[in-house]
Specification:
- The protein has a single domain, classed as Inosine-uridine Nucleoside N-ribohydrolase, Chain A.
- 37% of the residues lie in helices and 18% in strands.
- It contains 12 helices and 12 strands.
- An 8-stranded mixed beta sheet has the order 3-2-1-4-5-6-12-9, with helices on both faces. The protein has a two-stranded antiparallel ribbon with strand order 7-8. Strands 10-11 form a two-stranded antiparallel ribbon.
- Helix 1 (14-24) packs parallel to helix 2 and helix 1 runs antiparallel to helix 10.
- The structure holds alpha-D-ribofuranose and calcium ion (CA).
């Protein structure tokens, strides 16, 4: 079977970094066409810097990295330095990138790539706010039908919110963009907090990263050592939740995840619940299902896959 063509839209972020590394460690299954960066965890100049740092950590300076939207479609940017540190990639001491940023805007890359590649052959993997994706869909509606699948990290149902009482960070930062993406009609698979809060980097799992003996294993251990503080303090979690890598693990081993095909709408009116993913998990509204909303993960299987793949880099 040929490798699946994907574009990762990202706001690195330590967990974004692990997702990118997992993709790069899996070239037989994943053909990473490019990284499109968006403002989110930290401002755009830093997410574009961090994406290139991660590519060079994996010795893949050939991966094209594009800068995209530097602010949400209709709101001021909210960032998450309190989780990811001032650089967005605090933890390991990694060198500044030497590989160049691509000249093209990320939104143009998304549009041009979806128009160039055969219809239904490109998967979009957004793991930050959905600003780039929604901007591309708005500017070029013809590309929506050409998308094979959108596999995104964002939202929550039972876990409700991590940045406000009602909303998960990626959706909360740009709710208008999320509403556009969830209504666009492309097949969507969602990795919400309900799943990612079960993918915790416990101490034995972190030790297994460090024991890989390669630079990637040590860097990932140091990244998760840093960004676990927020979730340990807030939730009493037994380690850092690896939110974004769940999307790539789904592409590699979908059977690790279970969920329901339900309707998901985005709150864009009330400031009280702005960015809430209103998932009709119990199918009480009669609204047409528009997303495969994941609810559980085989965490041991996820970490076995992740650790084995990181060993390859
Ligand atoms: O809520 C978790 C999400 O917000 C992850 O994608 C993390 O990287 C941040 O972007
Ligand atoms: Ca992210």
């Amino acid at each position: 079977m040929s490798a699946r063509k994907i574009i990762i839209d990202t706001d690195p972020g330590q967990d974004d970094a692990v997702a990118i590394l997992l993709a790069l460690a899996s070239p037989d299954e994943i053909d990473l066409l490019g990284l499109t960066c968006v403002a989110g965890n930290v401002p755009l100049p830093l997410t574009a810097r961090n994406a290139r740092i991660v590519c060079e950590l994996a010795n893949r300076p050939d991966v094209p990295v594009f800068a995209g939207c530097d602010r949400p479609m209709g709101r001021a940017l909210v960032t998450a330095e309190h989780v990811h540190g001032k650089s967005g990639l605090d933890g390991p001491a990694l060198p500044e990138p030497t590989m160049p940023l691509q000249d093209a805007h990320a939104v143009d890359f998304l549009i041009d790539t979806l128009r160039r590649e055969a219809p239904g052959t490109v998967t979009l993997v957004p793991i930050g706010p959905l600003t780039n994706i929604a901007t591309a869909f708005t500017r070029a509606p013809d590309i929506v039908g050409r998308v094979h699948e959108i596999v995104l990290m964002g939202g929550a149902y039972f876990q409700v919110g991590n940045i406000t009482p009602a909303a998960e960070f990626n959706i909360h930062v740009d709710p208008q963009a999320a509403a556009i993406v969830f209504r666009a009609g492309a097949p969507i698979t969602v990795m919400p907090l309900d799943v990612t809060h079960r993918a915790l980097v416990t101490r034995p799992r972190n030790d297994a990263f460090r024991a890989l003996g390669n630079a990637v294993g040590v860097a990932v251990a140091e990244m998760t050592d840093f960004f676990e503080r927020f979730d340990r303090e807030k939730y009493g979690s037994d380690g850092a939740p690896l939110h974004d890598p769940c999307t790539i693990a789904y592409l590699l081993e979908p059977a690790l995840f279970t969920g329901r095909h339900v309707n998901v709408e985005i709150e864009t009116a009330s400031e009280l619940t702005m960015g809430m993913t209103v998932a009709d998990w119990w199918r009480v509204t009669g609204r047409a299902p528009n997303a495969m909303f994941m609810g559980d993960v085989n965490a041991d299987g996820f970490f076995t896959l992740l650790t084995e793949r990181l060993a390859r880099l």
